[in-house]
Amino acid sequence: MKTYFLLAAIGLSTASMNSQAAVVECVISGTPTPQEWSAHFCSSPTVSPVSSVVFRLNASKPIAEVTWSYHGSSGRWDCNSGQYCRFTNSSRQPSGNAEACARRVLYTDGTWESLNTCAYGTYWYGSGPILKQFDVDVSEEQLSSSANHLH
C-alpha cells in the first residue's frame, strides 16, 4: 500500500512538473524598441495605430499542435493550431489588450497535455520621436503548424 501511494505521489509530481514546463509568452509588434518574449505578460507603446500582440507556446519538447482560446479588444485573431497565435488590433482602437491561452498541446512524440497557461498583452499608440519600427514576423505557416519547432 505504501508503494502504491509513493508511486501515485511521484506520478502527480511528474504531471505537475510537466504542466509547469509549457508557458505562453507574448511580445508586442510595431514598437519603437526591440521587444523580447515575456512569459505571461507584455506591454509597450506602439509607433502605429495598428499593431499586434504575438503569442507563442514555449514548451520543453517539440510541439505538433496547440488548441488556443483568446479574447481582446477590437481586432483580428490568427490562431490556427500552431505554436503561435497573433492578434492584430483595429486602427479605430489604437490602444487595447489581448489575452491568449493554450488549453491543450499535442507534442510531436504523440503525447498530449491539457494546459491552462495564458499571456496578456497591452499596447497603446505612443507619442514622441520614433526612428524605426520593430516588428515581429510570424508566417502563416508558423501560425498553422509547428513543423519548424521554433522555440
Automatic annotation (TrEMBL):
Entry keywords, A to Z: Signal
Top-rank taxon: Bacteria
Protein's UniProt name: Ig-like domain-containing protein
Signal peptide: 1-21
